[in-house]
Specification:
single chain; 19 strands; 49% helix; binds nicotinamide-adenine-dinucleotide
Amino acid sequence: MTNPQLVEQTREGSVLVLTINNPPVNAFSPGVPEGLKAGLDAAAVDDTIEAVILIGGGRTFVAGADIKTFNLPRDQAPDLRGTVEKLDAFPKPTVAALHGTALGGGLELALACTYRVAVGGARLGLPEVKLGVLPGAGGTQRLPRVVGVAKALSMMLSGSLIGAAEAKDIGLVDELIAGDLLSGAVEFARTHATIRPLPRVSERTLTDSSPDVTPEAFQAAREAIKRTHRGQLSPSLIIDLAELAATRPFQEGWQAEAVKFMEARESPQSRGLRHIFFAERESARVPGLAKDTTTTTIRRVGVIGAGTMGGGIAMNFLNVGIPVTIVETGQEALDRGLGLIRRNYESSAKKGRISAEDVDTRLGLLTPSLDLADLKDADLIIEAVFESMAVKKDIFTRLDAVAGPDAILATNTSTLDVNEIAAVTSRPQQVIGLHFFSPANVMKLVEIVRADRTSDSVLATSMAVAKQIGKVGVVVGVCDGFVGNRMVHRYGEEARQLVEEGAAPGDVDAAMNALGLPMGPFQMTDMAGLDIGHAIRVHRAQQRGEPEPDGWLDRVVKTGRKGQKTGGGIYDYDENRRPRPNADVQALIDAYRAEKGVTPRELTQDEITRRLTATLVNEGARILDEGIAARAGDIDVIYIYGYGFPAYRGGPMHYASEQGLQGVVDDLKRYGGKAPAPLLERLAAEGKTFADWEKEPRS
Ligand code: NAD
């Protein structure tokens, strides 16, 4: 595996320059450690060399470990810790010269050098927490010694990057280089390195007088992550290690870090987060869509409907400088919609997220209108009017007459048949679903609904647009509810059933909260509005010629309790919007059970969690079998970004694969005798996972 060419050795007078050339991001993959060690060995024995510089070739310093090598046994994985140890013990000054991103293992290498210099545009960070692990090559021990515990914890727990200027301010970078990085670093090495040798980072100590190394400070950090990183393992390990860095000799922390790194790496949480990391990237690749499919540039967007969704959708484009024309039926609705957008921006400005100037720029890009014909110049038009097929067909018929010939016509429908909508136009190949989630300016997910006749170019352009506005776009097929809402519909049914059998709504939500979802099914229902779900159930029953639905939740709606918007629904809410059980709702549920002859029984949290996740996974398996989603990972990405399923569980499909699919099948049969989806049953019988299914050949 040795490939010393990945690290080039050149001389600049008395300085040896080690340039890491492993494009595109100089990942720390096999060959890099060998090359670095060879360079250090050469420099150690050469008396004419006074200092060594580490620098990245191309566009960046080392942007981290190669995540694909994560699962390799330690003796085959690139030896980052060994390289760092060698750097630390190296007898001559070393300078890390940073540009691009010095991330993860890259920053750990730099921290093991005597000095760090950087260009102004460089960015530095330890993002390991995002993959459920921790800096495992000295980062947890060196960063606190360099920048102090508070700053080190904030960087390691958030995983966010900081800029070079901030890095200089906090002492992580010793000098900012204005011109050419290499020349500046050589100059720095020649002057500072030889005349002002610093102690090694590993030899520095954090004194007890520093305010952020008290036991209370670490206790406060542990309390804080209960809120910010609820249920997660690696943040607490990071705090333990930072405490060792602050209070114990370097070697002790360095050894403990290796142990805790392995613990984190082997955890289901890290496997879940790594699965999502790859699934998200994979979801951008659409099977059958050629890489070189032509896309069109979206210069102007039209939005129809300035309600809950339309306003939020418009903001996404305004935020990235794309002008939007928004059309309503009446002045009053238009004013209401614009007012909402303005207030949203003003509140962001008040919180310091954007400047007052940004507010003006963004609102300046928005053109209100009452005339559909004003959308004639839009390259992309997104309809977000009432969820009614008749209204949507009317809009698309009129749109077809006014929109430019190449314009993409998109609908934000949550449930309606996009093929049927496309069919009223003369250009069904230009029609697509763009299903945003509420609040549309915040939620990262867009389901991109590919209708039967949607052209490849329209699909590819839609994917590119989603990326441009900072969303995660996942391609799905046409069916009632697409992927997310179709699964959540079954999940809601099961949640109501659990209550019917004896659970309190609060028990059901608590079980999902314990799994890591910020909201359980009933908290979600109260937020979305009970009337919305009820209307959908009524509509479905009508379509199927069934009697009007009369479950306990339908009865709650009829008492006028529609959720948070009416001050209460399944729960009451205090002034902090914390839910409390409502006695009338409980009495209604009790009466309902009595009427149905149900003797309520106690349901354990385990049963509740199993039944709800099994229901999601069962519907997910049907969705895969029907080709509505291309990969189980796509479903996981949808559930994480659209429904708050915890990323550290890897999404419902990955979670089920981790638990074993046979267990899911057994749960479905044991509780309520539900038929497992044929695909789920087959995979379970064959001892396979959804990841295995993805590798099976398709006919
Ligand atoms: P809404 O009632 O808040 O807004 C709809 C707006 O469309 C209203 O302001 C109405 O005046 C306007 N409108 C109606 N007919 C129009 C016409 N002919 N021309 C121009 N404007 C017209 O509804 P919403 O919640 O924003 O939902 C809009 C669409 O988005 C629906 O298809 C819905 O299913 C979908 N959706 C909603 C959510 C959600 O959580 N609210 C989430 C995803 C998708």
